[in-house]
Amino acid sequence: GGLFTSVLQASDSDFSLPKLATRAACAIAAARRGLTHGELARILAIYPALKIPDSDLVPLLARLAPYCQNSDGRLRLLHGTLATALQRNEEMEDCRDSILAEFKDSSGFALAERTWQWLSLGEIDPVIRELSEVMAVIRLHDIDPALLHTVWQLSGIYEGKRFSPRVEQNYEWTAPPPAVLQNQLPAALSIFTWLRQARAEKAATQWAEMIQPAVDDDNTSSELKAHFYNTLSVLAQKKNNPALAKASMEQVLENLFNPGEAGMKMLAVTMSNMAQQLNAAGKTENALELYQKAKVAALQPPRDPAVLANIIMQIAQINARSDNAAETEQHL
Q1: Is pLDDT above 50 for 332?
Q2: CA–CA separation, 288 and 308 (whole Å)
Q3: Left, alpha or beta for 122 (phi > 0: left; psi -120 to 50: alpha)?
Q4: How much of the chain is in helix, strand and coil states, percent to nearest 5?
Q5: What are the C-alpha distances in Å from 3 to residues 30, 99, 241, 278?
Q6: What is the mean pLDDT of residues 212-237?
Q7: Which of 130, 164, 175, 323 has a 20 to 30 A CA-CA distance from 212?
Q8: What's the confidence (pLDDT) of residue 294?
Q9: Which of 71, 70, 73, 91 is nearest to 25 (CA)?
């Protein structure tokens, strides 16, 4: 790392613009996924506000080539140690500001780059502001889910699991019209499931409220509706809301009238969840009957062993409590 910075400093004197080699290396190191030649030229042209002449740009790229890799036309430093050595360089903050100025469009790629630069500069407010839109969250999830995960850890959206320093500020999302969200529903449902599985119950509940109008739209497929309401039923159970859980399960069954192989697992899980609610309410016989139906669904292709094992165990536990030892042994 130290040798690399020394080489850059020695190279700076070979170009007409001040610290050109060092600034170029810092810009490449700062970018989330590297820079194209055109992006690098525009970013460096800000210092000073003159277009970099080809007489400088071409030899500059040749000088940096041994330390870079070209991935799909984007320059990235070959080793993490090189990037680490540049992080405290005095030019790094200015390079990050220049990258922010370069990536202004609404694409997911530009959003990810801006998010990365803001976080690196310690500015969480612009991130929260931009990711208050449902569609922005979906774009970032599509292009860089790991970065979205990091942002949410910083924001405290995963209850009880936050990075340090903790940012005591949650998101309040704004939903687009249902028609706008329609084509992005699979991604929106993936985020909903992700939040639910991460036990971010408050965030998952709010996200569900944002996307539910699009889910309920007549143009939404039965499969997507079943997916949404199955996840909502599990979330409702976790939040001790049996009325919502029951209503959600009924929606799942209504939209899985002809599930086929792809929907049999979901059908089995849904009936198992409904049986769990009945069992908790003391309606053991009804619960056992529904568990038996869930078992039949779970035995159909693609036959998920974990789902089937859980259903069999629930049946065995009910039989054990009712002193039906023969049936208990048979199920186990």
Answers
A1: no
A2: 15
A3: left
A4: 70, 5, 30
A5: 19, 26, 62, 69
A6: 90
A7: 130
A8: 86
A9: 91
